[in-house]
Amino acid sequence: MYYITQESGLSDRAGTCLPSQEESPRASISAQSPKRPSFAEPIPNVTAAVGREAILQCTIDDLDTFKVAWIKVDTETLLSYHTHVIPRDNRLKVTNSNSDRQWFLHIKNLDVSDRGFYMCQINTEPMISEKGYLDVTVPPSIVEENTSTDITVDERSRVSLRCKAAGYPSPRVVWRREDGKEINLGPMGAQKSSVLRLEGEFLNMTQVTREDMGAYLCIASNGIPPSVSKRILLQVNFQPKIRVNNQMVGAALGSDVVLGCRVEASPRPLTSWIRNDGVILLNNKKYELTEESESYRINMQLKIKNLEEKDFGHYKCVAKNTLGDKEGFVRLIEISPPTSVPHSTQSQEFYVPVHKGSSDATKNDSHMKKGYGIPAPNSLRDESQSLSSDEKQLASAKDEVLDGEKPKRKQSQNPTQGSQTNSRGSCQINFSIHVQLAFLFALLLFD
């Protein structure tokens, strides 16, 4: 172990002196030199990661024949004299350049113990020196013995996870969920507190639920690559819960049908389908059992092929784990197969008046056709000329009665009926006047 003193230059702790500049053969020549060595600039501070290489630089003007030494200050260890490395440490090397103006101390495969001040010293009388600081950084690491491992708790329990990290500078620890969901910290008064990220060594959750189940990552970083993380799996146990969306399912004979149940349970339950006669169903040509799982959720399905009469009835899905068991019921009923219904045309009803007697039916039919806007075979003028006087009176009386008893609702059924009825009425009035005049004229003739 060597160090430099101002009195005797380089010497060891046992008192063995190394030759100082004054005892050197060229001391007289150096004393006559008008220039003394000086440091052109301070030694720059160096920062390097553990395991890497650090290079400290010492720049000297007018060194001449003087010698340069590197010393570790905190341990007072002489590392080199000129280009000769003193300790038997193959990590150390000294180089120079630019006509001995620049001197470099190389330290490979850095260790934390290499952190500290280093002195570049010139063996003048008195000696002169400059110091520079080597900072050795350490990437973050997880301290496994002080960090939580995978944990299993019951629902509604309190959970505290710890992630201890080491490194230099001191690492920053951040928690987040692997699936990207928010971290449930538990109720804070009347509200639920949740965050996407949480900084700190501890992650405390006051009341975990089944939704909190999953993997949590603690990530440690301090700016020195690489960052590190640890995955901690949180398992939340609870007894099974079954939800049946369709409790009654209908199907026809000969068809296939699918029954379903949704199960939530942790740890993963044993599941089964049981028929109403107590038979546990297995996969075969008749039954097809399938399950789709996601975390603590399981979607159970039972497919029954080629339905028969004996297949209708109750079925139950069963889930059981260490905390309990649960059943869900589905009723399968028979329905008629769908049939095609022929297209039917809409029937139309027509009103056709029927009258007794040939002559009356003809006359009444003539009046009805006129009422509905249909022309009669003969005009009123021709009809009046062919009738006798008695028949004219009888026809006039019947016409008046028929006009008075004609239903008003038939007029409303035909928009064109009103105008023709009015014209018919005016014709009947004229006909009645002619008949009365003819009757009076006949009475005068007989008188």
From TrEMBL:
<dbReference type="InterPro" id="IPR003599">
    <property type="entry name" value="Ig_sub"/>
</dbReference>
<feature type="compositionally biased region" description="Polar residues">
    <location>
        <begin position="18"/>
        <end position="35"/>
    </location>
</feature>
<dbReference type="InterPro" id="IPR003598">
    <property type="entry name" value="Ig_sub2"/>
</dbReference>
<dbReference type="Pfam" id="PF13927">
    <property type="entry name" value="Ig_3"/>
</dbReference>
<dbReference type="GO" id="GO:0005886">
    <property type="term" value="C:plasma membrane"/>
</dbReference>
<dbReference type="InterPro" id="IPR036179">
    <property type="entry name" value="Ig-like_dom_sf"/>
</dbReference>
<keyword id="KW-0732">Signal</keyword>
<keyword id="KW-0472">Membrane</keyword>
<dbReference type="InterPro" id="IPR013783">
    <property type="entry name" value="Ig-like_fold"/>
</dbReference>
<feature type="region of interest" description="Disordered">
    <location>
        <begin position="355"/>
        <end position="424"/>
    </location>
</feature>
<dbReference type="Pfam" id="PF07686">
    <property type="entry name" value="V-set"/>
</dbReference>
<feature type="compositionally biased region" description="Polar residues">
    <location>
        <begin position="412"/>
        <end position="424"/>
    </location>
</feature>
<feature type="domain" description="Ig-like">
    <location>
        <begin position="240"/>
        <end position="336"/>
    </location>
</feature>
<protein>
    <submittedName>
        <fullName>Hemicentin-1</fullName>
    </submittedName>
</protein>
<dbReference type="InterPro" id="IPR051170">
    <property type="entry name" value="Neural/epithelial_adhesion"/>
</dbReference>
<dbReference type="InterPro" id="IPR007110">
    <property type="entry name" value="Ig-like_dom"/>
</dbReference>
<keyword id="KW-0677">Repeat</keyword>
<feature type="domain" description="Ig-like">
    <location>
        <begin position="37"/>
        <end position="137"/>
    </location>
</feature>
<feature type="region of interest" description="Disordered">
    <location>
        <begin position="1"/>
        <end position="40"/>
    </location>
</feature>
<keyword id="KW-1015">Disulfide bond</keyword>
<dbReference type="InterPro" id="IPR013106">
    <property type="entry name" value="Ig_V-set"/>
</dbReference>
<dbReference type="GO" id="GO:0043005">
    <property type="term" value="C:neuron projection"/>
</dbReference>
<keyword id="KW-1003">Cell membrane</keyword>
<feature type="compositionally biased region" description="Basic and acidic residues">
    <location>
        <begin position="380"/>
        <end position="406"/>
    </location>
</feature>
<keyword id="KW-0393">Immunoglobulin domain</keyword>
<keyword id="KW-0325">Glycoprotein</keyword>
<feature type="domain" description="Ig-like">
    <location>
        <begin position="140"/>
        <end position="229"/>
    </location>
</feature>
